[in-house]
């Protein structure tokens, strides 16, 4: 990779420093490896100090690209993604990324420029009330009012972003705060009495769950992204094996449990698999770990796990009982809770009949697609990529049909290999997220599965891939339509394809070549095999435009308003 992260210089302390200098020192103290940003008037004093700071800064092509790259970096590395945007339009361009990170609990520390404090409220050039705009989509936000506060604010921001339920923290910096002089002060310990996330669970509630496990006949674990955030996959494995509990994932939780383990049932939800959805529907004990019962997972709540005692383990107490009535609430960090579950004595129940039923469904009703001699099936392409990469790649996706197919047909052995926009469903996410993912793990193969629609929302970030020489393989599953919209129009709107078919496409190979990236094209299985082989044989970036069967739909499916047991398109 061309862009090695430069060694950071030792922190030097002067008695008096400018606000921007204090900020740079604070970032170094947090061991920031990379910043994703875009300059402009209000952040020029900060960029001036960045110039010879030794910090590694990635210049995005659009602020949205920068913040999605930071999300990809955060998802894979577990460290906070750091973003800088200028005031006004720079800041408003990151709003989607903030909302995305908030709903998917990704740790970000985001700096926005602001007009000088003397003109705030005067509709000054490039002024926007960024705190007002972003308050509901940030975990916390600050506006710097005194340059001496920089060290404290940065320290708190990194702490808040990464602890408890992770999320984005925004720091708005009026321009004059960068140049104002402040006295360097003693490093104060963190003092946030109002922010004390609960990590350790209540032992009594844990006991109740162990008792419920002993008496259950049809237990299941629903493992969400909280398991990944807490780096608790090992504990989950031990717990599931100790009590012989089947494990189902949410989309964002994929990789928290090895897909090929005998206790793994795959993922549940709108396009999850039949066995997983029916297991939830029929279960008598549902143990949710770090999942928030999103409607894409639950389907119609009136039919969700109707016979189950629900145990909900979550670090965010606001999640418990929010969507699903909960009998056994356990507030705590997934790792700490699983450790306590493993520490206490417990007995497993007799689940023989339950497993017999689950096994039969796994054999009778697996994920499937109809193979075709004439058409190139997207599922087949994903399986080919899985094989070529030995299932070890980091996969980023955009949003739409290809996202669901990737999650269905690229199973994961390890955590934090899937980088996808789950909660917000943000088109334009996948390509920039791949940049951050590759920077987080420079020796791992990164594949970005995109639709032709989403690719065109942030394709300018190909420029960053080229400049940093990141060997990302961009695979466009091109159905010449906004496929997921087309699918819904086919099924729910009597095939009235209002503004979802895109027969006129840009020449994607030429687009790639314009960025000096090798482009490939394939329309048949043989061609796909050949171009994939070629693209994965070198360490350069590549863009593959794969023409897939345009009418292919994602199945099985829980239609909106239906229960998980009412899936259609299950393998007959
Ligand atoms: C920013 C944004 N705008 C609109 C949507 C609504 N939407 C969801 S999926 C989809 C179609 C995506 O098409 P494409 O990128 O070609 O992927 P495909 O579904 O064909 O795989 C649309 C428009 C969205 N999720 N995000």
UniProtKB/TrEMBL annotation:
Gene Ontology MF terms in the entry: acetolactate synthase activity; flavin adenine dinucleotide binding; magnesium ion binding; thiamine pyrophosphate binding
Domain of life of the organism encoding this protein: Bacteria
Domain Thiamine pyrophosphate enzyme central: 206-341
EC number assigned by the record: 2.2.1.6
Signal peptide as annotated in the record: none
Cofactor binding mode and count: Binds 1 Mg(2+) ion per subunit. Binds 1 thiamine pyrophosphate per subunit.
Database matches in SUPFAM superfamilies: DHS-like NAD/FAD-binding domain (SSF52467), Thiamin diphosphate-binding fold (THDP-binding) (SSF52518)
Record-linked Pfam families: TPP_enzyme_C (PF02775), TPP_enzyme_M (PF00205), TPP_enzyme_N (PF02776)
Positions in coiled-coil regions: none
Annotated CDD domains: TPP_AHAS, TPP_PYR_POX_like
Thiamine pyrophosphate enzyme N-terminal TPP-binding domain mapped to chain residues: 17-131
The Thiamine pyrophosphate enzyme TPP-binding domain, residue ranges: 398-546
Main enzyme class: transferase
Cofactor(s) it depends on: Mg(2+); thiamine diphosphate
The reaction(s) this protein catalyses: 2 pyruvate + H(+) = (2S)-2-acetolactate + CO2
GO CC annotation terms, alphabetical: acetolactate synthase complex
InterPro entries for this protein: Acetolactate_synth_lsu (IPR012846), AHAS_TPP (IPR039368), DHS-like_NAD/FAD-binding_dom (IPR029035), THDP-binding (IPR029061), Thiamin_PyroP_enz_cen_dom (IPR012000), Thiamin_PyroP_enz_TPP-bd_dom (IPR012001), TPP_enz (IPR045229), TPP_enzyme_TPP-bd (IPR011766)
Gene Ontology biological-process entries: isoleucine biosynthetic process; L-valine biosynthetic process
This protein's pathway: Amino-acid biosynthesis; L-valine biosynthesis; L-valine from pyruvate: step 1/4; Amino-acid biosynthesis; L-isoleucine biosynthesis; L-isoleucine from 2-oxobutanoate: step 1/4
Keyword vocabulary terms for this entry: Amino-acid biosynthesis, Branched-chain amino acid biosynthesis, FAD, Flavoprotein, Magnesium, Metal-binding, Thiamine pyrophosphate, Transferase
Family stated for the protein in its record: Belongs to the TPP enzyme family.
Protein name: Acetolactate synthase
Origin species: Priestia endophytica
